Amino acid sequence: MSDETVGSETPKRTAGAFDVRLVIALLIGVYGIVLTVLGLGFTSDADLAKADGLNINLVAGIGMLVFTALFLLWVKLRPLRVPVTDEDAEESDSASSQQS
Amino acid sequence: MTVLAQDLRLDANAIDYLLLAFYFALVLGIGYLARKQVSSSLDFFLSGRSLPAWVTGLAFVAANLGAIEVMGMSANGAQYGLPTVHYFWIGAIPAMLFLAIVMMPFYYGSKVRSVPEFMLRRFGKPAHLVNGLSFALAQILIAGANLFLLASVVNLLLGWPIWVSIILAAVIVLAYTALGGLSAAIYNEVLQFFVIVAALLPLTLVGLHKVGGWEGLVEQVTNGPGGEEQLSSWPGNQLTGFGDNFLSVLGIVFGLGFVLSFGYWTTNFVEVQRAMASKSMSAAQRTPIIGAFPKMLVPFIVIIPGMIAGVSVTELAGENKAALMAGDPAPSGATFNDALLLLMRDLLPNGMLGIAIAGLLASFMAGMAANISSFNTVFTYDIWQAYVKKGRSDEYYLRTGRVVTACATILAIGTAFIASTYANLMDYLQQLFSFFNAPLFATFILGMFWKRMTPTAGWTGLVAGTLSAFAVFGLAETGVWDLPGQGASFVGAGAAFVVDIVVSVVVTMVTQPKPEPQLVGLVYSLTPKEQLKRSTVGEDAGWYRNPGLLAGIVLVLTIVLNIIF
């Protein structure tokens, strides 16, 4: 399921063509990596005492990485298509553009 | 926020600043990317009506998840406990569903570009102008308040001077809204939503861990000054101030749940604009419903941290909480408004701290960008194009939109300094809603369901309603009528609603209605059923995209939540 709907007729509109899901995944992913590294290597005992023994950087970091992975999976499974004209959109099968 | 600045100064280090900077880089990047898609004024103001429902749905919530929501509701959580959830489950969900199912077909189906434009089609020019001007004024005032709150938090947390933060935040919001228009604002709202969750969810978890889990929280709240009552949502006597259980429930359901919340959610163009930007009728209807799912869960990451702060933060717990609840200043000098900030200071290590600050700033900017982007739509379409420079090219209005965005931002900097002179900004904002939203809702409901209602009734009702809210405000301010802070805006909203209805009905009786053919698509009884239908094929197919069914699911979940808590 790549881009067969785009080829036939040139798309009239390009709005929505950049995928905000990738930006979200980028942000949360980078946050996740930084937090995980901080949590693994740079957590002092004072930091731990603050949160009553819970290494929140590590936990939140891993949580964010899992979230990023799920988001990337969504992008992979339901890739964004450039919207075509209304008539074309009707014809294209149910695997069309993005999740709603 | 009256705690001494140094008590709240967060110990942010280079990593925190780096995480913060990365977020802002992406915000501007979205503005730049969205710019490429803007080729007409409809792209700029309504995102070319092309966005998928999950994007507009999350933006719908994020636009509302601004300063008032995050800081105010955690403060309420610390003060009142669980009854605060009524602001979400009673005060928002039913109105959001009503907007989706009943009103959206008119908004989206009539292809108007703004709420004032709907007024123009239904009631003609005077009502249009009144609504357009009052909306534009309200947005600038609210944007300024958001901007000031943002700056004062940055000042408290990081020690930057207020005016530096005001201008810096204004420039960032301006950069992305002027470049990418509504798309940039909406995409950023979606991003903001995730950052806010990424900030508050870990804070909630670590807070719960600290107080010994849910049981620990229950135990400590029960033994605290608020007592057991703060752990169940009904009847919420502390929240409403009514001693009688029945009156309290009645007050929550009709006061909060009907007049205030329906007025806000169904006629506020800031919200409705997000749904109008979606790509089909079905998607427009789904926007508020998809928004309702996270809205249902937001209390858990906003109110619960507030409750945790109320029992675990030294400055807010024990005798301090007791004093604050009695209406006296706490011995520590803290107020409930500081709940979230104090909790962050106590619990979060560097790293998570930077993300939490990013989340807070994101929520303030979400509010302001939403105000600015809806202001420039209304100003350009409903004031400039309709009354000042008619019939120019689309390119001209697109350029106007960008210039107006810049002017709005400068005006908001001005109103931010006005807002800085008010002691309690939450009351100030509630007050504005009672002036503008309550009468608008009354006029809308009458106009949509009563075809006889005349154009003259449309604008006189609005003006009379707004004036009566002003009058209540004046009486309360001068002390003639003794009403506590939130009470004045509630009575004001009620008065505006009732006066608007009465005036509209009376004026309608003596003036000439619009001919019926002109009202097709605008009034319920004159609109053919097909016109209100959404498509159910292609991208709108499937039971999980059926607005009615989704709304039912939301309703059932809300009722379940009300029973549990």
TrEMBL record, chain A:
Source domain of life: Bacteria
Keywords assigned: Membrane, Transmembrane, Transmembrane helix
Residue intervals passing through the bilayer: 22-42, 54-75
Record protein name field: Uncharacterized protein
Gene source species: Prauserella rugosa
Automatic annotation (TrEMBL), chain B:
A molecular-function term among this protein's GO annotations: D-glucose:sodium symporter activity
Keyword Transmembrane helix attached: yes
Location(s) in or outside the cell: Membrane
One Pfam assignment: SSF
A Gene Ontology term for the protein's cellular component: plasma membrane
UniProt entry tagged with the keyword Transmembrane: yes
InterPro entries in UniProt: Na/Glc_symporter_sf, Na/solute_symporter, Na/solute_symporter_CS
Bilayer-spanning residue ranges: 14-34, 54-75, 87-108, 129-154, 160-179, 191-209, 246-267, 288-308, 352-379, 400-422, 428-450, 457-476, 488-510, 543-564
Keywords assigned: Membrane, Transmembrane, Transmembrane helix
Membrane topology summary: Multi-pass membrane protein
Main subcellular location of this protein, as a coarse class: membrane
Family (UniProt): Belongs to the sodium:solute symporter (SSF) (TC 2.A.21) family.
Name under which the protein is recorded: SSS family solute:Na+ symporter
Organism per entry: Prauserella rugosa
